[in-house]
Amino acid sequence: MNVKYLYLALVCLAFRLNTAQIYFNNRYDLFTKADASADIFLKDSSFFVSCGGLDITQSNLSLSIIKLNKYGVITKTKHYFKNNNWFYTGLGNSTCQLNDSILVSTGYRVGSGSSKSYVYWYKDNLDSIRYLEYGFVNKENVVYNVLHDSIGHLYQIGYVDSSYTNSDILLIKTDTSGNEIWKKKIGLSNYDEGAFCIKQCANGNLLIGGYKKLHGTSTQGPFVMRVDTSGAILWQNFYPSATYANGSFDVMELPNGDIVFTGGKAYNITSQGTMRRPMLTKVDAGGNLIWQKEYGEKAVAHDFFTFLINEKNNFVVSGVKAFIDNSCNGMVYEINQNGDSLFSREYAVESGSQNYFRDLVQAPDKGYVFSGFITPVFANGGTGTQDIWLLKTDSTFCEGAFNCGYPTGIPEAEAPEAVGINIYPNPVKDIVHIDFENASEKRKIEIYDAVGKLILSEDILTQHASLNMHHLCGGVYVVKVIRPMEISIIKKIIKQ
Q1: Average pLDDT taken over every residue of the chain
Q2: How much is the pTM?
Q3: Which residue among 81, 135, 145, 355 has its CA within the 20 to 30 Å range from the CA of 401?
Q4: Domains (ranges, CATH) in the chain?
Q5: What confidence tens digit (pLDDT) does each residue in 354-378 have?
């Protein structure tokens, strides 16, 4: 082998080994019955998932924590049961880190009498430190989210209700050891309010996202409020949508002070359920609307849940989309700061069954890990029991080493075949050929990798050109043909 090509091959091999993406699409069955998760947390390349599992008697739902390595393999589990009680974990962002060695997770416990919120402290190795419960006496206390602020406090957020007669936002403040500082019910007597998420603003104030509706009606929508650290309301805004619309499951403050939150617009009600479209809404620091945009087609239970901002400063939003055959898929959208959709994709671990996304994190390799659960639909060929589901994609949202249509950042222009240029073969193994219909003229050919980096540039004076791609690593490349006084022609090719 030519020494030059051998060297390049070794460089490619080293590049692949050092930058190899990790993929997995796994079901996890805790106790052979029903399991579910709605939360995932990343720490030191390990994933911590708070979840629940139904025991063999089907009378106790566990509070469980599982720890997985970066390949999705379980390395440690911890289960806590209480007789005739069911533990429900929070939604996305319901786990946080107190210090280098201690994590906390939150949720609520349902047993005889009223329900209580809880906070569970544990170490990296899942050894228990502390478990405490909170809430108002003789009320339904439900908590979905926990926040560790910048000065050493914990905040729990959810709702409190008296046998579903009128719900108010539940906000509990403790120190990091769990000592209660105060708890508050926030709401109006003629409205039902509840909260799903809490975040801290740059100035120390708290952002709370949830839902609100006039009591006794079904017209509701996202509800966002800003409070200070004493729980005093600074402002609150209700963004009503329609009958059975979704509230806000996640909210965040942007560096410029604007606020973005999820929601769902409801349309007509069918025999299968409410037709919805997921939404993102951006408001200014005072809650005044900047834009509100909907995504995708109308579908049964088409909803957004958790979102984050990636290294490209785009929103990555996880959610679920249901169908009339009683199945549903996890879904992801990448959306820019103007609210424009750049990419979307659906996923399943068992096609035809109910595949739910509830939370996501970005992994160290810039890929994404989605957590949720899968419920088999036996009428559609589903198998097994309800299980925890984790999906790991690469940075382009592909669940395997293939091109799943994610844009490379270099737009593909009109097909070269239509303008007298033929590029073949595609996929290419060694040599790519470019034929020009017109007579010889000066042209430039440039090849870019998938992230837009120029890796080859040649001037071509003949009607036919052959380029050696043998030394390039496998993947997606872009060929750009520049001709005098004409629009550049761009074509994606795959190097095997």
Answers
A1: 87
A2: 0.80
A3: 355
A4: 23-393 (2.120.10.10), 409-495 (2.60.40.3080)
A5: 999 999 999 999 999 999 999 999 9
CB environment 392-403: b (16+ within 10 A), e (fewer): bbbbbbbbeeee
Give the closest residue to 224 by CA, choosing from 181, 202, 193: 193
Burial label for 97, CB within 10 Å (0-12, 13-18, 19+), is middle
Helices (H), 295-376: none
pLDDT of residue 15: 44
Q: In the prediction, which pLDDT does 413 show?
A: 44
Q: Are 178 and 185 in contact (CB under 8 A)?
A: no
More confident residue, 276 or 490: 276
Instruction: Detail the DSSP E strand segments found in 378-463.
Output: 387-393, 421-424, 431-436, 443-448, 454-460
Measure CA 54 to chain center.
Answer: 26
CA angle at 472 for the pair 469 and 476, rounded to the nearest 5°: 90
Strands (DSSP E) contained in 149-190 are 153-161, 167-175, 180-186
The C-alpha atoms of residue 419 and residue 26 are separated, in whole angstroms, by 46
Comparing CA positions, the residue from 81, 107, 80, 109 lying closest to residue 94 is 107
What residues contact residue 325 under an 8 Å CB cut-off, 6+ apart?
352, 377, 379, 380
Alpha-carbon Rg for the chain in angstroms: 26
Give the pLDDT mean for 173-197.
94
In which element (H, E) is residue 12 found? helix 3-19
